[in-house]
């Protein structure tokens, strides 16, 4: 792994922010002023391929990157805010319904976040 790949992996593993490539670029630039955006994209692709990070695709917003540590996500259907949540592990249930082993599953639960709920109440 390159130095940049290591740095990016560290950022993603330490952050709870689900950073976009753009945000990672700005973060990395603080300590590595010569880094270019293409480097970030290339390294993110490599890290995804190697299964060291996961890519989160949310409709209507840029891809975000996340740790591969087992957790689920709550997504606000209005503003796209993403938060981590740990639901019961469904692997066993899914495997017994399927009748065979699975590699992993990716659970996204959509709701309206407290901030958006508040905004709505203020308007009505
Ligand atoms: Zn929201
Ligand atoms: Zn997450």
Quaternary structure type: single chain
CATH class of the largest domain, please? Answer: Mainly Alpha
- SSE topology string: HHHEEEEHEH
**Termini distance?**
53 Å
The small-molecule ligands in this entry are: zinc ion
Taking the sheet with the most strands, its summary is: 3 strands, mixed
Strand order of the largest sheet: 4-3-5
User: Strand percentage, roughly?
Assistant: 15-25%
Q: How many domains make up the 3D coordinates?
A: 2
Q: Supply Rg.
A: 17 Å
Annotated CATH architecture of the largest domain: Orthogonal Bundle
CATH superfamily of the largest domain: Winged helix-like DNA-binding domain superfamily/Winged helix DNA-binding domain
Low-confidence stretches: none
Structural class computed from helices and strand pairing = alpha+beta
Number of helices: 5
**What is the percent of helical residues?**
40-55%
CATH topology of the largest domain: Arc Repressor Mutant, subunit A
Please state the average pLDDT score.
Answer: 92
Shape, per Cα inertia axes? flat
Describe the model.
This protein has 124 residues and is of the alpha+beta class. The protein has 2 domains: 1-68, Winged helix-like DNA-binding domain superfamily/Winged helix DNA-binding domain (Arc Repressor Mutant, subunit A); 70-124, Dna Ligase, domain 1 (2-Layer Sandwich), CATH 3.30.1490.190. Helices cover 44% and strands 17% of the residues. It contains 5 helices and 5 strands, in the order H-H-H-E-E-E-E-H-E-H. A 3-stranded mixed sheet has the order 4-3-5, with no helix packed on it. It has a two-stranded antiparallel sheet with strand order 1-2. Strand 3 and strand 4 (82-85) form a beta hairpin. Helix 1 (3-14) packs across helix 3. The longest helix is centred in the middle third of the chain and has 13 residues, at 37-49. One zinc ion binds next to loops. Residues 18, 66, 71, 73, 84 line the site of one zinc ion (ZN).
